[in-house]
Structure formats: structure tokens, C-alpha cells
Amino acid sequence: MNAATLRQVLNTIAEMFPDARCELNHRNPFELTIAVLLSAQCTDETVNKVTATLFEKYRSPHDYLSVPLEELENDIRRIGLFRNKAANIQKLCRMVIDLHGGDVPRTHEELTALPGVGRKTANVVMSNAFDVPAIAVDTHVERVSKRLGVAKPDDSVLEVEKKLMRRVPREEWTITHHRLIFFGRYHCKAQNPKCEVCPVLEHCKEGKARMKASLKKRSVSK
């Protein structure tokens, strides 16, 4: 996909989802960090249901360390991998207190040093909490990028991120991240993508192949 075509595709997706944003509910960088940590292999909808009460009970890193691990586990039991995540939350809180004075650090290197915080989580926190341009590649961003040919099918998550960073203007990294997520979550889904009404179908090899197969199947069944 050349630069002009990519620009056209991104503009179209922007028109489809003008209100794209981070859908994880949070009031500050610390809550966002916890929410993104919880969201691994879990939907934002489920995380928001859990944090609705979690963030009222626990307001600071000290609060998470004031209860037994088993109690925190129970509070996030509806979240996948809740035991591992509960342990990481308490370890993270201890490091935030001991190394950063109780505040979530503002650098990518310091964020990724925290338990349970990978590159994607750090990018989300940097871009949404601290307004530092970043592209966090989650399952939706990866899928859409590969379907549209911005990245190759066998590219790693890091390779997808680097290719997007090279091809998208830096000042658009964060909003592009949100728009690609919305596009993947609500339109170009993993199962049953809306190819038949997709305004960028002409630029999607996988989508065109799906439509061709669908037409062939219908013609055979007649």
C-alpha cells in the first residue's frame, strides 16, 4: 500500500469513527495503568465492569498493598488470569511506591520495568495519560494492519508497530491507534468482518478474497 492509498484509508476510517478514544474508564495515570494491565486477554467491557467497584475501593498504590493477595484476587475474579494479575498489581504498587514516590513513571523504560506492564501497556499509558505520541499494537491493530497490507502476515507485534510509526505522521500516532482499534473492534472483526459494506474493501486483499469466496459459494448453492 503506497502513501497516498494509506492516507485515503486512514481518512476513511477517521470518518467512520470520529469519536475513537480509549474505552477503558480511568481518572488518572495510575488507574489507567491498572486497567490496561487487567485488559490483557480480556475485553474492555469486562474490565470496566470490574474497575467500577475496584477503583472505588482502591484509590492509591498503598490501598492495593493494604489487603491480602487473596482479597484482591477475589475483587478481580471476573478477569482472565486474575491470580497472576493480582500478584503483578501488588508488585507494581510496591515498585511505584519504592522507586517512584507513589506516582506512575513517565518514561517508557520505567513503565516496562513494572510487573505486568509490557510494551503495549506502556504505549497506552504514555499516549493517553501523558500525551506522548505512541501506537499500541493490540489484537485489533495487528489484525487490521495485516489485512490492509500495511504489515506482512508473519510480522511480529513490534514489526507492525515500527511499520505504522514509519508510515503514519508522529502527531497522528495516538489517534490512529484508537481509530484502528475501533475499526477492528466494531467493523473489521476477527470473525465475520463486515466486508460487504466496507468502504476500504478495494484495498484489502483478504476482504476481496472473502467476498469472492462468498459469491462463489452462493452461485454453487443456486
Structural class: mainly alpha
- Per CATH, which architecture? Orthogonal Bundle
* Helical proportion, percent range: 55-70%
Label the overall shape: elongated
Radius of gyration (CA) equals: 20 Å
Mean pLDDT: 93
- Please report which band the strand proportion falls in: under 5%, 5-15%, 15-25%, 25-35%, 35-45% or over 45%: under 5%
Name the CATH superfamily classification: Hypothetical protein, domain 2
Largest sheet: none
Determine and state the CATH class.
Mainly Alpha
Any idea of the CATH topology? Endonuclease III, domain 1
GO biological process, one term: base-excision repair, AP site formation
Protein name: Endonuclease III
Keywords: 4Fe-4S, DNA damage, DNA repair, DNA-binding, Endonuclease, Glycosidase, Hydrolase, Iron, Iron-sulfur, Lyase, Metal-binding, Nuclease
Pfam families: EndIII_4Fe-2S, HHH, HhH-GPD
